[in-house]
Amino acid sequence: MLEAKDLMTKNVICIKKDIPVIDAIRLMAKNNITGIPVVEDDGVLVGILSEQDVLRLFHTFEDEKGRTVNDFMTQPAIHFEEDEPLLDVCYCLRDNSIRRVPVTSKGKVVGVISRSDILKCILKLLDDENAVPAGGAPNNKKQPVSATTLQSSSLHNTSK
Q: How many CB atoms lie within 10 A of CB 104?
């Protein structure tokens, strides 16, 4: 069964809760990311800052421009330990209408999984199902990817 660590992006941009929220927004825009884990100095997850968290700045900028990430972040952050099933992560992203979740090991951020990571995984599984077997013809049978397919996949870490 696939686990969170098998799909997570390992090079995660994290921020501290005491930085100005405007700097965090700049970092998100520069790196084309929709959310950033917020951590303590030792890497322990304390929250997450998402695009949705800062949208109110559009109409309250003058009153709030000097505020910090701590004033806007969602806490506690929904997150998964690295050995939790990827299927649980998938259900969480779907059921909570969130775009990404941090992955932790003993409370410290070690990765992140986004909806787009899950979509790429689904495509990889479909490509693997349609691959040409040794000495045979391609399997052109299109089958929907199901929870069972995700659990039995041989996909491993896709470093970015």
A: 22
How much is the pLDDT for 159?
Answer: 38
CA distance 61 to 55: 10
Give the chain's length. Answer: 160
Higher pLDDT, 22 or 156: 22
Query: 4-117 belongs to which homologous superfamily?
Result: CBS-domain (3.10.580.10)
Expressed in angstroms, the distance from the first to the final Cα of the chain is 21
74/156 Cα distance (integer angstroms): 30
Whole-model pTM: value is 0.75
Concatenated DSSP letters of 31-66: HT-SEEEEE-TT-BEEEEEEHHHHTTHHHHHHHHTT
Q: Where in 13-143 does DSSP place strands (E)?
A: 35-39, 45-50, 80-81, 100-105, 108-114
Q: Which helix (H) or strand (E) is 24 found in, with range?
A: helix 21-31
